[in-house]
Amino acid sequence: MTMQLGNATLTMVNGGDFRLDGGAMHGVVPKTIWSRLVSCDEHNRVTYATNCLLVEIGGRRVLVETGNGDKFPAKEREIYGIDHDRSAAAALRELGVPPESIDVVLMTHLHFDHSGGATRRTASGALEPVFPRARHVVQRRELDAALHPHERNRASYLAENLQPLEAAGLLEVVDGEADILPGIRVLPTPGHTPGHQSILVDGGGPKALFLGDVIPTSVHVRLPFVMAYDLDVTGTIESKRRLLDDAIKDDWLVLFGHDRRHGARLGRDAKGQAQVSELVDL
Ligand SMILES: [Zn+2]
Predict the structure, then answer these.
(1) Please, are residues 145 and 108 in contact by the beta-carbon 8 Å criterion?
(2) Per-10-residue mean pLDDT for the chain, 282 residues long?
(3) Which superfamily is assigned to 2-280 in CATH?
């Protein structure tokens, strides 16, 4: 399905489902509460999508996120319950969008579930970019974090997702808020990682905000719901507060990094807390 917002056409594809520990996904929120909102398997794991947003605007194609990709060895596939059959490139091809037609790839951050689909292995085992014509844009702070990772999230940064892009000269860094194309703006939203960014799409009609992992699912719209994976929890809460205020004030469509329902329109409850008023798929 596709949504038209002004002159921007938005399509969501799944870069592969995976399963993550429900406790880690909900941080300090106890299972007695989160288990009423989402269901988990016998290993306490919840199934998530890796949402990748195709934006067609001004004759250009922008892909936000690349999903898990298809390079995982068996052990990691087992740990993360990774579904190999639905890489972002494969999903795009099914829609008649060849990888060569993507002009820009934007990644909220460089963890493997957002950057894994940017590279692939050839038959001979070499690594190569999946989107050979695309500028791949990340925040400078994110690239620094990926090259010198903190022990706490080092396992999420894999050289195989980054080095082929650098070698091909496809990696581009920006510092802070920046216009990438007319109608496509990146906003720094630190917390999950220091260089995390979210993407604002403004096609001249209602705006859409791709949140990434600052608010990975609709459940995480609640301020205290912050993943245990986040390096700076209070930073995430401040990023969320700011984004939610803007999104509610201007009635943005918000899009989640990992929810199987793609996005939502927001409002406030009787106490003034941000809440989902309507779930939206595209
Ligand atoms: Zn993620």
Answers:
(1) no
(2) 95 93 95 96 94 98 95 83 80 97 98 96 95 98 92 87 97 98 98 97 97 98 94 96 97 97 97 96 94
(3) Ribonuclease Z/Hydroxyacylglutathione hydrolase-like (3.60.15.10)
